[in-house]
Design goal:
Elements lengths: L16 H28 L7 H7 L17 H14 L1 H20 L2 H13 L4 E4 L15 E5 L2 E12 L6 E7 L9 E7 L5 E3 L13 E12 L3 E2 L5 H37 L1 E2 L2 E2 L4 H30 L4 H25 L11 H9 L8 H12 L2
Parallel strand pairs: 1-4
Antiparallel strand pairs: 2-3, 3-7, 4-5, 5-8, 6-7, 9-10
Helix pairs in contact: 1-3, 3-4, 3-6, 4-5, 4-6, 6-7, 6-8, 6-9, 7-8, 8-9, 8-10
Length: about 400
């Protein structure tokens, strides 16, 4: 378990005292419940769903949802701070939780009140787990390559296709599935559907073995003529891609929060090791070269957090924050890789062993440059916005 580096109470820009109070509450929970199990979950590649009832009980399962739909009504800034605390304790649990947020955000942003009433209270309570199925084996970042189809059949749709790398799918109660309803319309021909996991024709393969976040299981999902009633389509036909992009704006801020949480764990481990490890009769914390490494790590962490909090601030204000979310996700995902690599370097040979857990942070951080839009996609989003 890591003694993670903490910010002084009330030091987070833009956040209110209520935001900080919620973050402190989550920090205590994460330290007491999540952190002690993180190494075991990683070692055994055990699904982090063992924590799901506790996440529901403390309100984390619905932290992204308004009170009207059973959620906590937390601000986007409180949500950011809470996700950071969860990630600092257990990245696998954070991955499961934020994938659930993608699914419930899709219903909140793209659905109608009947759909929200049907799915969101249970999702907020932790009795329902969601999954978000956008990615396909041959269609990652380009929606025009999507091959999953939804064709009309009377008052229903029939969905056929394959989704890949879908977090939570094997244990989910419902899956948000994106499918092409009009192949000639490109991105404007994509629609979104809420599909019960147990619907006939939905099949999940075994959990994929992964390098890191080994308890945040991902799956291939096959849809074999799955019948979905029209009432389970989210929003008008052809609006699915727009919904997905809004959801991913939110998700990228949460990836930034996850990155700062993992980075905090790395910084805390490095600081504590420097104080405790002695060479030549004195702690290595006395060596200026290592001090400078620690200072660079802390500076990168602070910059990443500020970018994430700025995007969260704009989200809270109801302003557009697509570019700010891309800035935050890009910088934080790249920065956490450097920070945990430096933490491992500071630990020397001990950092390469599984006993101290620093190598787990290195493995967990790697995926953040890939999922929910790779670093290259974030650069494309930023550049296109700059160029108008």
């Amino acid at each position: 378990m890591f003694n993670t580096f903490e910010m002084p109470p009330g030091a987070t820009p833009f956040a209110t005292e209520d935001d900080h109070a919620m973050a402190r509450h989550i920090a205590r929970f994460a330290g007491d419940v999540l952190a002690p199990e993180a190494a075991r979950i990683d070692r055994d590649a055990a699904f982090a769903g063992c924590h799901w009832p506790a996440l529901g009980a403390i309100g984390l399962a619905g932290l992204n949802l308004p009170e009207a739909w059973g959620g906590a009504g937390a601000s986007p800034l409180a949500l950011y701070l809470a996700v950071e605390e969860v990630a600092a304790a257990c990245a696998s649990t954070c991955s499961m939780l934020t994938a659930h947020y993608l699914a419930t955000d899709a219903i909140l942003l793209g659905g109608d009140d009947a759909q929200r009433a049907r799915w969101l209270p249970g999702a907020a309570a932790g009795t329902l787990l969601g999954a978000f199925a956008l990615t396909e084996p041959q269609a990652g970042s380009n929606p025009a390559d999507m091959t999953t189809r939804a064709r009309r059949h009377g008052g229903d749709y029939v969905l056929t296709g394959t989704k890949h790398f879908i977090s939570n799918a094997g244990a989910a109660n419902f899956i948000i599935v994106f499918a092409v309803t009009d192949p000639a319309a490109g991105a404007r021909g994509i629609s979104a559907f809420v599909v019960p996991r147990e619907a006939p024709g939905v099949r999940c393969g075994p959990a994929e073995p992964t390098m890191g976040i080994r308890g945040g299981h991902i799956f291939e999902v096959s849809l074999d003529a799955v019948v979905v009633p029209e009432r389970d389509r989210l929003g008008p036909e052809g609006k699915g891609f727009a919904t997905a992009m809004k959801v991913l704006d939110n998700g990228r801020v949460e990836v930034c929060a996850a990155a700062t949480g993992i980075a905090r764990a790395g910084l805390g481990a490095a600081r504590d090791w420097m104080k405790a490890r002695e060479i030549g009769g004195r702690p290595i914390a006395h060596f200026q070269g290592l001090q400078w490494m620690l200072a660079d790590m802390a500076t990168a962490l602070e910059a990443a957090r500020l970018l994430g909090l700025n995007a969260a601030r704009l989200r809270a204000a109801g302003a557009r924050f697509t570019r700010e979310a891309a800035h935050a996700k890009l910088f934080a995902a790249e920065a956490v890789g450097r920070i945990v690599d430096a933490a491992q370097q500071i630990h020397g040979g001990y950092g390469y062993t599984a006993a101290l857990g620093v190598e787990r942070l290195v493995r967990d951080a790697r995926i953040l440059r890939i999922y929910e839009g790779s670093s290259e996609i974030q650069r494309t989003i930023i550049a296109r916005d700059l160029l108008g």
